[in-house]
Amino acid sequence: MKSKNINNERMKIINSKVVLNYIREKVSVSRKVIADEVGLTQSTVTNIIHELIEGGYVIETGKGESDGGRRPVFLQLNAKAGYAIGIELNVVKITCILTNFKAEIVERIEADTNISEGQEKVIARIIDLIEKIIARSGIAKEKICGIGLVSAGPYDREEGIMVNPPNFPGWFSVPIKNLIQDKLNIPTYFEKDTNAAAIAEHWYGDVSDVKNLFAMNIYDIGIGGGVIINDQLFRGFKDGAANVGHMSIDINGKLCKCGNTGCLETISSGVALLDKVKSEIKKGKKSIIEQEVKDIDDISIDMMIDALNKDDTLTRTVIDEGARCVSIAITNIVNLYSPEVIVMGGNFINKCPIYKDMIIKHVKAKKFPPHYDMKIVLTDFGDVQGALGGAVIALQEIFKA
């Protein structure tokens, strides 16, 4: 009898989460539609909704048109039911956001990473940002459901450890999740930044209705990917899937920090393109950028993008070659994963949308099956994509059945 009661209670929890997640997906929906779509009886749904309203998770928002019977009452998530914090840590910047229960951003705060100061000071800075954003919001700490921290791989997700990421020199097996969780006493989750990007797009992006997508992020420093297959994040062995930045494009190319040669990010990331532009100018190629600096080494990524926008021939040639190499990687991604959509993000491509257009041009020149209608779009989340993914990961724990 005890086992039966436990099973019944477990089933009740699962059904409640199924209903709650369905309301999240549909944004606004009636009890009848929920019952029809999730396969539960009307009475079961009515009881679940009653408990979700009593618990503050769901609210009634108004009535729809009658189809002959009683007018349906629409339901939505209660934005104030709980809150989540998302943190994206990269080598340049720490982005911290606080979202409500609908994953709408309530507060945002940023700080320079100052990676050269070492891991202890960087982690202390993350903790300080979290404490500041909670204080600024005026929200009680008890209302924070969790913290989702995202950063570069390789990593140990279960243990919450950064395992010597190539762009974080000296960060050997850093237990970053526990360091933050133990200090703040808030449940903390750790995920790769590009996996978090894929999760954000799949849960709340314009492509949230797509079952198979690939998130490809091109940063100033590095390139990464995350893949959703049949509505599930695909992790692979040791969470190593979709590591597109270290896909070998040129076997005779530049040595990568990972130890291999010719990785995509040594060719097509923002810094890689900048290094190529500088190298070509030093070889005697002409560019309008030269007018802005006394020393070629002082050329910045922003200067390079500005020159591209002014149709500088050298800059356009270099960046177009980077786009061609990205298109090779995308061809491999399409043949491996067959996504319906590739969502492009990352701080470099967000500030250089022409790069996306160049990539699409080269992808369209590739040969795919005639029925294949894969789309490439730019994220709508801009530079908070990763942090939003972190917040969603924290919220997911409530919705997961």
Key terms:
alpha/beta; Arc Repressor Mutant, subunit A; Nucleotidyltransferase, domain 5; 3 domains; 5-stranded mixed sheet; 15 strands
- Average predicted confidence as pLDDT: 93
What portion of residues belong to β-strands? 15-25%
Order of helices and strands: HEHHEEEEEHEEEHEHEEEHHHHEHHEH
Class from secondary-structure proportions? alpha/beta
Q: Radius of gyration, Cα only, in angstroms?
A: 24 Å
Spatial order of the strands forming the largest sheet:
6-5-4-7-10
| Major beta-sheet overview | 5 strands, mixed
Spans of at least 5 consecutive residues whose pLDDT stays below 50 are: none
CATH superfamily of the largest domain: ATPase, nucleotide binding domain
CATH topology of the largest domain, by name, is: Nucleotidyltransferase, domain 5
Enumerate how many helices there are, as a single number: 13
CATH architecture of the largest domain: 2-Layer Sandwich
Number of domains: 3
Straight-line distance between termini? 24 Å
- Share of helix among residues? 40-55%
- Per DSSP E runs of 2 or more residues, the count of β-strands stands at 15
